[in-house]
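Q&A log
Question type: sequence-to-structure
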Amino acid sequence: MTDEDFDPHTTPFVPAGDLDTDTADDGEREAPTRLPANMQDYVDDEVARRIRAEIRSLADAAFAEALTPELFEQLRAATARTVAATLASRVRAADQEAADAESSASGQVYPTLLAFVDAVIRPHYRRAVDNPEHNWCPQWWLHGEAFRRLDALWRAWEHLRKDPQTGMSVWWKDHADHHMGKLLDPIGPFAKCSARHGHKDTLPPLPAIAPNPALFDTPADPTDTGNDAGTDTDTDTDTDTEGASR
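Response status: OK
Response body:
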């Protein structure tokens, strides 16, 4: 377009930035302001990676400065407790799975004694404890007598439940009432314990005087009435031997 052809009233105004650079004398193009999408993503990822690396370096330095020997010992102790608790939990879970599998194979309702006590004894044999008439230990399993009596109740229950007529009545009358009466007795195995203050391991075993080991070397003969004892045998020895045979 020449000067003679230009008409300011009819020719539209074009900003300088919108001019076609292809017609520039030097042939240079304007540099793009953004990279292609795939290259821009790569740049963004690399920048983010460097930022994370720098933050990690700063965090490591701050951690090393803040971790005093006291804090390190606390961290070590806490980690040890966590590991022990996790291992114990995993072991209990494995034991429970094994018990469940064994119970399923044997046809038992309750896989363990603890499951039986928590599901049958404690919810259904309710008594006011910590009084002159009844006593109970919340850690009953620490008492040998209680463990064995409750184990006997569990086994009897699993057997008698198969009798749909009188099985449970027999279990309550002949087993539960008998053994629970012994356990809840205030002078029984829980005499020094209480539901409020917990377990007290203060009851000693029954006293005993060590007998002559020779009395127990030979198994007792149930057909031996003792009538053939020699006349020259000491009377006290005969009495001891008879007691051991019984």
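Response note: Helices lie at 37-66, 69-106, 113-124, 144-160, 167-184, 235-245.
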